[in-house]
Design a protein that fits this description.
With 145 residues, this protein is mainly beta. Helix content is 0%, strand content 61%. A hairpin with a 5-residue loop joins strand 9 (105-121) and strand 10.
């Protein structure tokens, strides 16, 4: 797949918040998409600028102290540590907003569709979690070229 790139943009964080999800055992999963690149990729049929990003999703868990376990002795390996999909409730899925060097704002929203818990305990005594997700984009156009 070839990506159309018209301009590599600088950006600053205007609003940056974690997504929050609650599991039935009281665990709170937090996830955030951290962009490292923003590109203008053209315009839509109305002349509105379109953007794409590159980045990573980071996930952490806040687990009740009474649910912590003895850490695993080996490194995590998805081939030997099976995962189970678990139910969750979305508490917060905010839009994160970035000021772009072309004068516009880019809103990015991380949407989590599934959470999986691994049969592995990290060094903090917490299970490892994996999420399936998608990203939604919306631009607030303050400036047209």
């Amino acid at each position: 797949m070839k990506i159309k790139i018209e301009e590599d943009l600088e950006f600053d964080f205007q609003k940056f918040k974690w997504n929050k999800y609650e599991l039935n055992d009281g665990t709170i999963i937090k996830a955030v998409y951290l962009p490292t690149k923003v590109f203008r990729s053209g315009t839509d049929e109305f002349g509105t600028p379109q953007y794409i990003t590159g980045g990573q999703v980071h996930v952490t868990a806040h687990i009740p102290m009474d649910l912590r376990q003895t850490p695993s002795n080996e490194r995590f390996d998805p081939a030997i540590h099976p995962t189970t999909q678990i139910d969750f409730i979305a508490i917060e899925e905010p839009w994160n907003i970035y000021d772009l060097s072309d004068g516009n704002e880019l809103k990015v929203r991380l949407i989590v569709s599934a959470i999986r818990k691994a049969e592995f305990i990290n060094p903090f005594g917490e299970p490892a979690y994996n999420i399936q997700h998608s990203l939604t984009y919306a631009a607030k156009v303050n400036h047209f070229d």
